[in-house]
Amino acid sequence: MTKTSLTLLALACALTLSACSAGKPDAEAAGEAAHTSSSAGLPKGDIRAGQELATNGGQGIAPCTSCHGAEGNAPIGDIYPKIGGQYADYLEHALQAYRSGARAGGNADVMAAQAKGLSDQQIADLAAYFHSMPTQLRDLSNVN
Ligand code: HEC
After folding, report:
1. 2, 46, 47, 56: which has the fewest Cβ within 10 Å?
2. From the CB of residue 1, how many other CB atoms can be counted at a distance below 10 Å?
3. What is the pLDDT of residues 113-128, one digit of tens each?
4. Ligand 1 atom showing the smallest separation from residue 91 Cα
5. Digit-coded pLDDT (tens) for 67-109
6. CB of 112 sitting under 6 A from ligand 1
């Protein structure tokens, strides 16, 4: 191969690459992002890490099960919701809302205090763990 054709080849490659990345549709780029994070924009959760945190607590974080009960399904009183088997996205959005203060006032302040110190990764882990537990949640079908 001559020096000129090598240069041309390199130029063609460079042009093709930039054409590819510049021409990538936004929807496709967004689709790729959706595969690597939840709808709450969090990293992928780890069930084991979530279980450890949920049952034993962490630095400045009380065990979730001390209020929500074993597997999130045996709350200590009426104001504590069951969270076992809940959709992971729901749990993530709820925990983000408590952390940011968007969900506050009344009983929510109790939970906001728990969520304040949680990192994005911890929220994702906790959501993955509680989602993986059996559910006692019901939908509204057949409710009068
Ligand atoms: C001191 C008791 C207590 C602890 C500990 C606690 N929670 Fe809560 N949690 C509550 C209360 C009370 C509510 C209801 C607040 C409200 O009415 O919004 C709640 C609500 C929630 C909700 C919303 C459920 C729904 O159906 O909307 C989630 C999710 C949740 N807690 C997750 C956790 C996780 C995860 C942990 C551990 C990091 C945790 N909680 C630790 C008391 C607690």
Report:
1. 2
2. 7
3. 999 999 999 999 999 9
4. 29
5. 999 999 999 999 999 999 999 999 999 999 999 999 999 999 9
6. no
